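BUG: 3D viewer hangs when loading the predicted structure for this chain

Environment: internal workstation, default settings.
Expected: structure renders.
Actual: progress bar stalls at 90%.

Input used:
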Amino acid sequence: MDDASEIEELRSALAAEQARAVAAEARAAQLEARVAQLEKQLAKAIELLGRNSGNSNNPPSSDPPSAKKSKKKRLKNRPRGGQKGHQGSHRQLLPPEQVHEVVDLFPSACESCWKPLPQVPDEFPRRRQLTDLKPLAAHTTEWRRHAVVCPCCGYRTRAEHDPDVIPRLSFGPRLMAVVALLTGVYHLSRRQTVRLLRELLGVRISLGSVSAIEKRVSDAVEPAVDEAMESARGAAVKHADGTTWLRCGALLSLWVVATTAVTVFKVLPNGQKATLRDELFGRVRGILVSDRATALKFWAMERRQICWAHLVRKFVSYSERAGPAGKLGEELLEYTSLLFAYWSQFREGQLSRETLVERMAPVRLQLEAVLQRLVGAEVLGVSGSCADILAHREALWTFLQRRGVEPTNNHAERELRGLVMWRRRSFGSQSERGTHFAARMMTVAHTARKQGLEVLEFLAACCAPRPAGAAAPSLLAAA
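Structure tokens produced before the viewer hung:
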């Protein structure tokens, strides 16, 4: 073999080796990319497995058994019942005007000289009360239109039907109010309601009648609910929160708007921005306390307050990560604990608002600086979230400057819980009429509680017949 052939053979071998090296590098790059992708998926899966009500927006009912066991473990040394230092509660005696029967007891003879004593009432007698129920019974009224034969001509005349005297319905306003109270406020099923009315009051009623009564009561309270909605829309400070609602298996959006005076529930076709703006709020008025829902971005940032309870759960999820994200998440939790400590002192009157603002100034700077560091760290699932929090920077600290604004949205979340439990028990509603009934009844119940009204009395007043042109009962009458 001559030198030229040998050189050509070596060149071919070198080219083949270089091609194999390039292919190996490409394969290695593919494997590295695949490993990186799998690591991201694994990290996301671990994060999802570790989610609970303490580090996410999931409800406590969704916590896995491991989370519940860890909570029990923390409390295993805690005895049952009231803890040491707990202020006990005692039954208070009713005032004399609310007592239906009084039994006066007098001593018969003096314990010193044993002479008879006169029955002179004591100004401060020792009182003992017993509360019981008398037998409950329904009150049924029957109208009879008699026919009378004229003694002169023998013509038989029957009393005419006067709709102003003889009611059109078979059930009175108070009974309708009780039915609506049982199904719409205490969330009994219709079958349970039928059974309870028969056993407790002796009232026999069908399932269809219960459904018809629900519609009548829902229509009767509609003006009061609309008035409450207008009050909520015009309030200087309002809390809002949303979740899902089911109607015949279709997914809808359930929202609550709560103020110090009213709580209004509304089921919407969806939770999109245009729907919330047009059907729930009408227009931007006052300060809105909420989470960072994208659909609420139409509300000006300077007129919003982002819920710090949501942020705390987010920071907890950061702190549970490994590496720099975990350490920075712990720093965020430390600054947030200072925020709530100062706010608690302010609410208890230990700090003035000026002192609160002064003490929160360095906390605010340090907390936002940590968020900036997390954004720069480019951590998957963390940096983007921190960037979004910083995009809401103007809405994080409104509670420091505006009176009546809370740093959390706990008010709306507590109010929403009632309808969430209804949804869990009954899988939502089965018709549009049932959806309206659920939202209106819970609006009446929660608002009446805030206004100091008795729900049963208010429902009965709404169902009672009114003269033409008379105004419907108002939930805001107390205000």
